[in-house]
Amino acid sequence: MKKKKKKKKKTEAFWKASIGLLLRSYQVSVFATTMRLFFLESLVRLL
User: Fold this and answer.
1) Is residue 3 predicted with pLDDT exceeding 70?
2) How far is CA 44 from the centre of its chain?
């Protein structure tokens, strides 16, 4: 029982870390797309 509990905690931490990484990468991609759109908009305005 004790061993199982330890394993569960480890997997829980792993899932939390992976979810955090996914959220961070998603935020970064969203930020990149917004920056790209903003850059394209400014280019269009200049033209």
Assistant:
1) no
2) 30
